[in-house]
């Protein structure tokens, strides 16, 4: 779960704290032996996402987070040592989000059923700041069914499709005028059966007398942004689809039965696309919102440009 994502985030910051959902790359990967005398302090990875062995959605990027900054001059070399291969050829590219995080996304969504491998072959590679890689890291994962959710804020609906076929259309309420929901496509970060949500944790209000104060544990939570956006059931909005003037603090609310059903349908990396909100699109590093950038914008943050995966 991403750090700082404990509540509906109408007032949360739209930026990464430098932590991505996923396993500790140093503890859960195939690490190569440390070379006999590193040329300097080690360049290590904090996390690689997705976790190895997982099945993820078609909008899931590969996200690599370093423990220390990577200099601009070193990024081209680092990218060349972050090798992406797949069971079928896929065009994609790396994009740097600050100096510690690099994400690889396909130009368009991954094809379902694709098997993917990321080899971070960093032994001896410099980060441009006096650190050198001492390990190799490998993750493998699979792209599952193409599950998508399209949220219409003005229509108060969420249409769910699987592999191009309509499954259900659910009634929803989205954010209020004061705390609107992010527009754009957000890949599911993770999900939890219960999440403790507080208005204070996302900077909305710590005053118990405020009408915007809340301190609730709510069920069936599908996590969309690091700033705290979820799709979930809320006791504060018992009639999703009613177009309640009150709205949420940025989350998408479902009825209890619909929230439980939706929770069972989605996985990490499935795209949830919101339209009709007055708010801008979530930034690409606010969780896994890579597809909120155009392809040209994505390539502008790459040191090596578009690539085609090698074949597994």
Automatic annotation (TrEMBL):
Pfam families: Big_10, YkuD. Keywords: Acyltransferase, Cell shape, Cell wall biogenesis/degradation, Peptidoglycan synthesis, Transferase. GO terms for biological process: cell wall organization; peptidoglycan-protein cross-linking; regulation of cell shape. GO terms for cellular component: extracellular region. Residues 147-275 form the L,D-TPase catalytic domain. The keyword Acyltransferase applies. GO terms for molecular function: acyltransferase activity; peptidoglycan L,D-transpeptidase activity. InterPro entries: Big_10, LD-transpeptidase, LD_TPept_cat_dom, Transpep_catalytic_dom. Residues 1-49 are annotated as: Disordered. Gene3D superfamilies: 2.60.40.3710, L,D-transpeptidase catalytic domain-like. Pathway: Cell wall biogenesis; peptidoglycan biosynthesis. The active site is at 232 (proton donor/acceptor), 251 (nucleophile). SUPFAM superfamilies: L,D-transpeptidase catalytic domain-like. This is Ig-like domain-containing protein. The lineage of its organism: Bacteria, Bacillati, Actinomycetota, Actinomycetes, Kitasatosporales.
């Amino acid at each position: 779960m991403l750090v700082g994502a404990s509540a509906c985030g109408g007032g949360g910051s739209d930026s990464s704290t430098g932590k991505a959902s996923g396993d500790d790359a140093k503890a859960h990967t195939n690490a190569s032996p440390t070379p006999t005398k590193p040329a300097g302090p080690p360049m290590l990875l904090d996390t690689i996402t997705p976790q190895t062995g997982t099945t993820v959605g078609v909008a899931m990027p590969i996200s690599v987070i370093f423990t220390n900054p990577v200099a601009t001059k070193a990024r081209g070399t680092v990218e060349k040592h972050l090798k992406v291969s797949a069971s079928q050829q896929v065009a994609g590219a790396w994009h740097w989000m600050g100096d510690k995080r690099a994400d690889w996304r396909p130009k368009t969504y991954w094809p379902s059923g694709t098997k993917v491998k990321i080899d971070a072959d960093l032994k001896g590679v410099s980060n441009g700041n006096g650190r050198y890689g001492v390990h190799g890291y490998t993750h493998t994962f699979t792209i599952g069914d193409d599950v998508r959710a399209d949220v219409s804020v003005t229509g108060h609906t969420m249409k769910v499709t699987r592999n191009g076929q309509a499954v259900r259309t659910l009634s929803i309420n989205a954010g209020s005028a004061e705390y609107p929901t992010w527009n754009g496509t957000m890949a599911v970060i993770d999900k939890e059966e219960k999440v403790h949500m507080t208005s204070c944790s996302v900077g909305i209000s710590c005053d118990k007398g405020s009408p915007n104060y809340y301190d609730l544990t709510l069920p069936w939570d599908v996590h969309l942004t690091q700033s705290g956006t979820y799709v979930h059931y809320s006791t504060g909005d018992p009639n999703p689809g009613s177009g309640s003037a009150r709205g949420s603090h940025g989350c998408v609310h479902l009825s209890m039965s619909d929230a439980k059903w939706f929770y069972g349908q989605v996985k990490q990396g499935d795209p949830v696309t919101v339209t009709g909100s007055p708010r801008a699109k979530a930034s690409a590093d606010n969780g896994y919102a890579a597809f909120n950038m155009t392809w040209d914008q994505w390539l502008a943050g790459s040191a090596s440009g578009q690539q085609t995966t090698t074949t597994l």
